[in-house]
Specification:
The protein contains seven helices and 18 strands. The chain is an alpha+beta fold.
Length: about 375
């Protein structure tokens, strides 16, 4: 059994390690392409008067800003919650069992905790599924609602574009329609508690399957948009097989709109780089897991040595990650690639020095 676990750990580590490199390469390729497209967009976009539909800009990339407006009230037909807004978002969470697995000294233990989750937790694969069962469907789904017509000056804003606008403000709930068939069919008490619709008997002690619904809105106000003009409406702008359109709250210049898109994409890219680094590190840790298991039987000394090995492998993982990223950058951005390659070389050099120092100490 122990041999099977060791082989499984080594195989899993190898798969994780091999998968991390294409993942990192894909991330850098995507980022480089997106950054180039944003540069082209910033050069091509023309700022126009939002109050005038100029036929000469039809099918061209434009930037408009101004006060968005709608004459309608957005309504959730199931709960009756409504608000004068550009976007109304129903957020649904269900109280469910969540399984946590812990492994210590090759022994697996399981903990089960009740938590609010916005997605189904499949309990059929739980280790103790018979005594920890979750519902198999959400009786009420997360959904977004829009006005039928929203305009900015002379232009109609499509709902797909409004969907990109974040709904950031919590909606204060005061009343609810409880006679909707969809709510009655859930067969739970309906109440408003702590600015949320609660479907269940006791909010302080919820049962598995109870539902909590919150609402967020995008308020009516000034917007800035970059999109392709399509008569009196707006459409996605296609560039090298990719489609782009941007919407931001507030009165922003075209450069500011593009910069926000760049900043968000840059943050996502760095998070994915970190994920790739963790994949490389965990892959290396899994590969040397038999040695870690052996050291775990040595009191204190084994703990210290295992910690040193983990730090060494983190340095190695960082170096390998930077090498992959820098090689990708050499293709798309040579100068940055050279800098990152030098940094990765420094990490590998530090790893080698730590290994040599450790060998010298053990030899004396």
């Amino acid at each position: 059994m122990a041999e099977g676990i060791k082989i499984g750990n080594i195989a899993g580590g190898l798969i994780l390690l091999l998968a991390s490199f294409p993942f990192l390469i894909w991330n850098e390729k995507h980022w480089a392409g997106y950054a180039k497209d944003l540069k082209i967009i910033s050069q091509e976009v023309k700022t126009v008067n939002a109050n005038i539909e100029d036929p000469s800009y039809n099918q061209k990339l434009i930037h408009i800003s101004g006060q968005a407006s709608t004459d309608e009230t957005v309504k959730d037909p199931i709960t009756g919650i409504q608000e004068h807004a550009l976007k109304l978002q129903r957020l649904v969470n269900m109280y469910q069992w969540v399984e946590y697995k812990e492994t210590k000294n090759n022994q697996e233990t399981y903990r089960y905790i009740k938590e609010w989750r916005d997605r189904l937790v499949d309990s059929s694969h739980f280790n103790e599924a018979a005594t920890h069962q979750n519902p198999t469907t959400f009786p009420l789904l997360t959904q977004t609602f829009f006005p039928e017509k929203t305009i900015l000056g002379a232009f109609i804003i499509p709902q797909d574009l409004l969907d990109k606008l974040p709904a950031e403000k919590d909606l204060t709930l005061t009343s609810i329609i409880t006679k909707a068939p969809e709510l009655i069919s859930i067969n739970k008490n309906v109440s408003i508690i702590e600015n949320a619709i609660f479907l269940g008997n006791n909010n302080a002690h919820p049962d598995i399957g109870d539902i909590k619904v919150n609402y967020k809105i995008a308020e009516v106000g000034p917007l800035s948009i970059i999109a392709q003009q399509h008569n009196n409406s707006l459409a996605k702008h296609w560039l090298k097989g990719n489609s782009y359109w941007f919407i931001e709250s507030g009165m922003l210049s075209a450069d500011a709109v593009v910069w926000r898109a760049y900043d968000r994409a840059s943050t996502t890219t760095w998070l994915l780089r970190l994920m790739g680094l963790i994949m490389v590190w965990f892959g290396l840790l899994a590969l040397i897991s038999p040695l870690s298991k052996l050291l775990s039987f040595i009191p204190f000394f084994g703990f210290v040595v295992d910690g040193i090995i983990q730090i060494m492998l983190l340095l190695l993982a960082l170096g390998l990650t930077l090498i992959v990223v820098s090689i990708s950058y050499l293709i798309y951005r040579p100068l940055i690639g050279l800098i990152m390659l030098a940094t990765s070389g420094a990490c590998i050099f530090a790893f080698i020095k730590v290994v040599q120092l450790r060998r010298k100490r053990t030899s004396h």
